Predict the 3D structure of the following.
Amino acid sequence: MSVWAEASLDSPTARTPSLERSNGSSLPDTPSEMSSYLNAEVYSIKPTDAMALPLQINTRQRALHAPLPDILDPNTAANVRIRHICAIGAGYVGGPTAAIIALHNSNVKVTVIDQDERRIKSWRGRHLPIHEPGLERIVRFARDGTNGSMDTISEQHQDLPMGQAQAGSDRNPSRRPNLFFSTACAETIASSDMILLAVNTPTKMHGVGAGRATDMAAIEGAVRDIALHAKPGTLLVEKSTVPCKTGQLIKDVLEAYRPGVVFQILSNPEFLSEGTAVRDLLQPDRVIIGCESTLSGHRAAAALANLYAAWIPRSNIIPTNIWSAELCKLAANAMLAQRISSINSISAVCERTGADVNEVARSIGMDPRIGTQFLKAGFGFGGSCFRKDIASLTYLAESLALPEVASYWQAVLIMNDFQRDRFARNVISRLNNTLRGKKITILGYAFKKNTGDARESPALDVIRILMQEHPHTIAIFDPLCSESDVKRELAVLDDCRGLVQPNGPIEIVTDSYLACADSNAILVLTDWDMFKNTKPATPDKFEATELPQLDGATPANIFRLPHSVARVTKPPSPPQTPKMTGIGTDLAEDLMSEPECPPSCEECGSFGFGKDSREIGHPLDWHRISRSVKEPRWVFDGRGILDARVMLGLGFRLETLGRQSMW
Ligand SMILES: NC(=O)c1ccc[n+]([C@@H]2O[C@H](COP(=O)([O-])OP(=O)(O)OC[C@H]3O[C@@H](n4cnc5c(N)ncnc54)[C@H](O)[C@@H]3O)[C@@H](O)[C@H]2O)c1
Ligand SMILES: O=c1ccn([C@@H]2O[C@H](COP(=O)(O)OP(=O)(O)O[C@H]3O[C@H](CO)[C@@H](O)[C@H](O)[C@H]3O)[C@@H](O)[C@H]2O)c(=O)[nH]1
């Protein structure tokens, strides 16, 4: 271990001795060998190694370089010039993160690369591949530029320290594009000073650790590309959620493919939630930066901190060591999911006792030690993160010979499955234990509102269980999920081949009223505001967003206020006319024109992304639906969003998780 601690990382050309491998063997050559190496190696950490290493480095380095410069001091990175940043992975993290960094650092070029040509084409065009409230305007701003009356900020303030360029003016400047999307991976990597790793890290589906371990293939591929093409001294930032100790693996892979060349590795986990990604990125609770305890480690971390400091108070930036940074992401997700499973377990008790889970959640949430968030009972959490990150944590714990820790977190997933199963089985039970000849309507496929992400939707498992009862039709309506995405997800059901073909039992319907017509039961599976039968406090917004208001910021200057001027205040209640992501209409008018779509563009008129945003936000008329469904008008509320009295008044039989039946 001391080999690494002693590495002279302060010279960009110095050879970095790699960590000693426990079995003493050389690194594998082929990608598949490398993949198994990554998975075997990451979990072969001895508990003593995992805990002692940062301490050893700290102790050693304190002796070598005491005191190390402050990461939060802007001058610490004075000799680190970041002119070009590359984000690998144009997904839910890479795209929005790059866009916000570009927006706030107009003197830095930011290029997002991906091997998926379709995705890159979408990012370059009018139909972004992911939907996030407010994102489109920000991408337009940074990607296309504006044609205001002033010279570009980058021309005017070229010698200002990074991140301070925007603060200088209170007029609308013109702005050259500084956000790019490309499939030219090698060239982009080669010209970058900093690389953000934002590739997918799903659960391994086969082989060692299948179903639990993290599949490191995408990380490995990206790191190999970096090793082959990046300049010596390039800063590598882990944005992906990875198992603890991945920084060490990355170092080993780099050393294997590019022996002797030094790269600095930072861990900077992303905490954004889908549906609120723009708000989360603009005003994160904290930014964690894990680095090595060396002079160059601190300089690298300070360079990253300077980028964030363009819009985030330095007090919200938390420096730490790499392993803590990696682990805190898994731990945060596990604890959030654990709260949901906890309240869901209580919901089952409520149904049998007559208690109301909403009342219980409200009462316990008022204890400030517990807090109100993530206590909404429902038919289980979904999304691409919680399940796989808890699986990764349990696998890590097992690998560290901590079976009790593993089974503790495993219970969170078991409770989630239990909740989903009992919701689906209750539907079948209420419909007399048979779905033959019946139509079931599913309102909402996305795992949560305000996103079109169809991955890991808990709806899929409900559909799987319902399909075993051979319903005549399952009609699915979601205001934002695209038909092709839902079909792709449904295709993973083992017994689902052909089910979504014409005349198959599963229909994806673009009209909510058609989806509900003649239905024997309506299942509300996403908490879209449009499904609610009460007036939502904040309606679903698409182009408009729920961004917090900033004191002293007009819509036009909100992005140019230095954070010291912009004080965060609570959003006004009731909400004002929604702002267009904070970029005022005057700036919006200055936006350079968007690329045109070809006349044959399928997305221009398609369901999902092409849909008119005003139509999406239009609330459902439950009265109209009550007249078109079959008696006895069953509604199963999997998200606890429907007002029972209103539904009963319309003649529905409402079943809500965590409450006794209402009919
Ligand atoms: N989705 C979220 O809300 C969220 C939030 C925080 C953290 N994360 C984490 O961030 C990471 C990315 O998540 P995501 O949802 O953005 O994933 P994603 O699947 O949407 O995007 C990943 C992209 O990386 C690309 N890619 C993979 N290997 C590549 C390579 N070698 N070169 C170029 N491109 C490559 C893929 O083609 C894909 O487009 C994951 O580790 C995830 O756990 C996700
Ligand atoms: O009280 C609650 C809160 C959420 N959910 C469900 O939990 C799932 C996840 O919701 P949320 O956490 O809001 O969305 P994600 O986009 O999955 O974000 C989580 O996962 C991301 C990826 O790691 C992290 O960055 C975020 O911090 C973390 O909140 C969804 O199905 C929600 O419906 C509930 O059932 N009850």
